[in-house]
Amino acid sequence: MTVLSYPVRSSIFALAATLSLSSFVSGCSESADSPAPEAESTQAVKNEVTVPISAVTVALVDPGEGPHEVLAPHPAMGATQQVTLRTTNRIRQQINNQADQELSSPALTIPLTAAADEHGARLTIGKVTTPDAKLSGGLGPAEGSHAGFTVNPRGAITSLRLSPPADATDAVRSAIEQAFYQAVYSAVVFPDEPIGVGAVWTMQQQVSGGVTLDQITTARLAERDGNRVVVTVDVMQKPKSEIWNLPNDAGMLTVEDFVMKGSGTVTMDLGLPLPIDGLISLGGDQTYADPETLTRLKQSTGSTVQWGG
Predict the structure, then answer these.
(1) In sequence order, what are the residues at sequence separation of 6 or more whose Cβ sits closer than 8 angstroms to the Cβ of residue 27?
(2) 262 SS3 class
(3) Peptide bond before residue 239 is cis, with ω within 30 degrees of 0
């Protein structure tokens, strides 16, 4: 991918654009401490790899109105559900006064059959579709493949389990994995304390990629009817450092401006492994600079995670 023809330290910005596409568009990527997918395997499924997910810190702000109860997902072993995960990723960038470039990755629609297991949820992927003609032609091998979430008692996803089909292309594997990362980092985690309708709590999690981000989500219990709960969320991300050290000693960029925020609603049945409905959108604008040349990379990014039928 040719990102720019700028003669000064252009390789820095070419690499930065590539990393931004994988790390900032969706606001989710592998943890910096996570092993490469090939580094780990499990005995449960051939070729299954496990990627740790950074811990979530939950703090109760307001317990809401009574009655109060400790809420958490509690699907019975073997409980199944069918739900569709839809994701979009958008990125536009500009380097100095050059023309804008469109670097968005394809939208995906992933039908899932989820079954509660001893780890959390075991997922079977249905027929994946995309409006992107180039990617669409290689999606066939993904049908029938597997993934999974390891979930703690509060609903936090602690690891993502992936079983990529051996005959799928790298582009297909990457697109599907990215969709699951988006789902992981938009998961609702409940506080330990009893709560009622109107309760407010925060979820703080580190998202590591090109630049390590703090993701702070403020959640509110908007409705509850037995196991069915509706939670609204407001999401904000901010960089932990003003310096972006590119890998392989490729250089560094400074973070001059960074805005990333979003909101949405998630509907859950606490007796099922996955959300049953919902939409969370996240987006913003960022500016990075090469401190030696003052060349600037401006980006406008956005993503959505949607659950439903």
Answers:
(1) 182, 185, 207, 213, 215, 235, 237, 260, 282, 303
(2) strand
(3) no
Q: What is the spatial distance between Cα 279 and Cα 267, in angstroms, rounded to a whole number?
A: 9
Nearest by Cα to 283 from 268, 265, 305, 267 = 305
Instruction: Record the tokens describing residue 278, joined without a space.
Output: 């919902």
Q: Which residues pair with 219 in a beta bridge?
A: 201, 233
Which amino acid does the sequence have at 280? I
Cβ-Cβ contacts under 8 Å for 234 (sequence gap 6 or more): 217, 218, 261, 262, 263
**pLDDT 10s digits, 61-85:** 999 999 999 999 999 999 999 999 9
Cα separation, 64 vs 70, in Å, equals 12
Distance CA 73, CA 270 (A): 4
Which residue is associated with the tokens 């740790």?
Answer: 52
Q: Can you tell me the distance from the alpha carbon of 162 to that of 192, in angstroms, rounded to the nearest whole number?
A: 29
Let me know: does 181 contact 157? Beta carbons within 8 Å: no
* Sign, CA torsion 201/181/155/225: positive
Do 213 and 240 meet the contact criterion of CB atoms below 8 Å apart?
Answer: yes
What pTM was computed for the model? 0.85
Q: What is the pLDDT of residues 238-279, one digit of tens each?
A: 999 898 887 777 788 899 999 999 999 999 999 999 999 999
Residues of the chain with pLDDT under 70: 1-46, 209-210
Question: In the Cβ-directed half-sphere of 35, how many Cα atoms lie within 13 Å?
Answer: 10
Rounded to the nearest 5 degrees, what angle is found at the Cα of 211, between the Cα atoms of 210 and 215?
A: 120
d(CA 191, CA 259): 27
> Smallest Cα–Cα separation from 30: which of 156, 251, 180, 165?
180
